[in-house]
Design brief:
Length: 322
């Protein structure tokens, strides 16, 4: 093949990719996705990537992860010291099995003995200390998350100091309640399923397994609802954000995927124990916490991008239409 023929082929390929790109852009400027407030996909992506590049998302995620890391220990102390006081038969055992199913195997085995002791032994003094410590540090963690939302590249109004801390306190009190409701629903759902099998109402067939899988749909729905509630209440002008949004869907998906990915990696390929010993579980947990914070901020950036793009599109003289 001559040089002239080769150049001709290259030029045709360039024209093909250029035309394909122009067609894709044209389609994206008219294509909308549910949850994007009827804003075309092209403009949402344009604002979204601008927010990612200029929004220092990794720094914000690191700050949030550290704040929640400080909160996780007193919060776990309070919740687990509260569990022995719950007068439900086998509740502690069922909860331990639920935690085992969610956490990566190595991370669970690292804290299994401690969890077992805390879930079965009553301690009134530790319960009181855990409550106030958990409230203080969890409030700081939620406030750090709100600050991370307010630090978005896109223009989002912020609240006054005391108003923001009050909202952080409300979220700190409500979100754990929602999580506990989900845990109770899962627990009693499993108990009801076992009871139905014992009475012969259902058998160990496809129906049983479908109902058993249903509890994980409850977990996913609970994740989505909590994230939507957080995105709706945390911003200063929440009327700009719909309760069910594209950002909530993205954050829920990312949190589930990161949890599954880390669980798979640690269980099959992780060598944390070989290199770091007992620090392996801590490393896994910190990474998981960081990527979850990253997913939450990324979902909020998507909501902020949708809102900013919609405001720009409403202005006919905006450069976004050029």
């Amino acid at each position: 093949m001559s040089v002239k023929q080769n150049n001709s082929i290259i030029q045709r390929q360039k024209r093909f990719f250029k035309i394909s790109y122009q067609i894709a852009i044209k389609k994206a400027k008219s294509f909308t996705i549910p949850g994007f407030h009827e804003v075309p996909l092209y403009y949402v992506i344009k604002f979204f990537f601008k927010g990612i590049v200029n929004g220092a998302i990794t720094t914000r995620a690191s700050a949030v992860a550290f704040s929640f890391y400080l909160a996780i220990v007193p919060t776990l102390i309070f919740l687990f010291t509260l569990i022995p006081y719950i007068p439900v038969k086998d509740f502690q055992v069922q909860l331990l099995m639920l935690i085992k199913g969610i956490m990566p195997d190595y991370a669970f085995h690292t804290v299994q003995s401690t969890l077992t002791d805390v879930l079965t032994l009553k301690s009134g003094g530790l319960l009181s200390f855990g409550f106030f410590a958990a409230l203080f540090f969890s409030h700081n963690g939620v406030n750090a998350l709100i600050e991370a939302f307010n630090a978005t590249y896109h223009t989002i109004e912020t609240r006054k100091f005391f108003e923001q801390h009050l909202i952080a306190l409300v979220l700190t009190l409500i979100l754990p309640i929602l999580v506990m409701i989900g845990v109770v629903l899962i627990f009693f759902g499993q108990k009801t399923l076992n009871w139905a099998i014992k009475l012969g109402w259902i058998e160990m067939n496809l129906t049983y397994y479908l109902l058993d899988i249903g509890k994980w749909f409850i977990i996913i729905a609970l994740f989505y609802f909590c994230i939507s509630f957080l995105y709706y209440l945390a911003p200063a002008k929440r009327e700009r954000f719909r309760f069910f949004s594209g950002g909530s869907s993205l954050a829920t998906l990312l949190i589930i995927l990161t949890s599954l990915a880390f669980s798979f990696y640690v269980n099959n390929f992780g060598q944390y124990n070989t290199f770091y010993g007992s620090l392996g579980g801590l490393i896994v947990f910190l990474l998981w916490l960081y990527f979850n914070a990253f997913g939450l901020i990324l979902g909020f950036e998507l909501n902020a991008s949708i809102t900013s793009a919609k405001e720009k599109l409403d202005n006919d003289s905006s450069p976004i239409l050029e």
